[in-house]
Automatic annotation (TrEMBL):
It is found in: Membrane. InterPro entries: MFS, MFS_dom, MFS_trans_sf. It is a multi-pass membrane protein. GO terms for cellular component: membrane. The chain crosses the membrane at residues 49-67, 95-112, 124-144, 150-172, 184-205, 217-240, 287-307, 327-344, 351-368, 380-401, 413-433, 445-468. This is Major facilitator superfamily domain-containing protein. The keyword Repeat does not apply.
Amino acid sequence: MADDEKGNLSVSNAAEFKVSATGAEDSESGSGSGIHTEIEIDKVAEKKLLWKLDLLILPILFLFYMMSYLDRVNIGNARIQGMDKELELNVDNRYNIALLLFFPIYIVLEIPSNMLLKHVRPSLFLPGLVFFWGIINMCTGFVQSYKTLYVLRVLLGIFEAGLVPGVIYVTSMYYRRHEYQKRLSLMFVATSIGGAFGGLLAYGIAHLGGQQGYAGWRWIFIIEGALTAFIGLVSPFIVVDWPDQCRHLNQDEKDLIRNRLRDDGGEFRMDKLDSFGVKRIILDWKIWLGALGYMGFTTSGLAMSFFLPTVLNDFGWASTDAQVHTVPVYLVAVALTLGLSWASDALKHRYSFIMFCFLLTVVGYGMALNQEHLSRGAKYAGCFLIAGGGLAGGPLCIVLLSNNLSGHWKRAVGSAVQVSFGGIAGLMGSLIFMEREKPDYRTGYTVGLAMACVAGLAPTIMMVGMWIENRKRDRGERDERLSWPTERLNNLGDYHPGFRFTW
């Protein structure tokens, strides 16, 4: 909820939250919230509201996310259409450097971006980012040297930095914890659809080579960048603001959103970023473990996105055929992401699905590391496992963390930290596939396998830690916090003893 909402949680009603929680959970696995409040919810009005929110929020943010991903990785499609030779990117790992330069400032700016977003209207901030990075991407089609390309990649990272953490932050303020996975995953499959669409688009645009004197790879950037900029220009009228500011909702609907979130996990707020709040954020082990898990999966997802056309080209497919063969890989990733997300919300459980993605990725890397013994079809199948596990596992890790953070500042900073670790994954993903190691790419596949193991280990430690903490709170071992001053008690977020973790 936004800053001007009043969440005066006194010591007495904080104790009521503790009593009403009773430590109860939806299952023995601890998959429930553990919080049961007495708020009356009109189910008919709630169903109508959810449909309205889905139509308002998801389509436009899906489009933003897809264009973000497409504009970030279309350099991989352009590379095999002649960009590599024309800009001499095949010398001294210049292509890898161009990929890498996107990420350093991207990583640094994600947390400040979400801190700024808390104080402005998302309907202006997010479309503004989209418009400016679209212009930058369009300009990439006119570069004449790899040095100019380097500059534009840095600028692209600056303007894309705020989108993903901003989308996670804004949407998490509208939905209950166990209806959020499938909705966030609907947006995250934009990466897979963007990858598939990018391959098809690159295949079609390749035939424009020579039009107006521009090579086919240049048209990839010009057309996609212009489309992105247009979307950013017209979307401020569509994008939602914070729930209490949203002009698309009436007051009854705003009240219903507030009551639903209170009913889901209690109104455990963190709206003041004082020294105590900063300490609670920095020392929250969940944020760092959730970030490591996301980084592990994202290394696989981004590395395959940057290099999949090149890898398939090395398998023996011609450039245009390699573009087309990227499409099924991404479409399977879409189906896997959506299927796992719906099952995860239905079962109110995340962890086992994360482990499934971990296993897929590990098997895929195992096949890639032994590709000299495999046919082209088997090697191609390994790409499905790596991309599917990496792209489906990422949103599961994001929602696992988001479900277990409470309070405006906690979610703003926590989601930004997690996504910034995804930027670190992008740094690794852009460097590990080296030209001199083609076609085996031993470093790329070995590092990918190691990061997949991180993606499996970090959520496991996080789940065990939350299980232990829930049990301590059930036994009243954190109740001394209820005697703290009201101002501090009202700013605890998920550190409040009445909050229960879910996995």
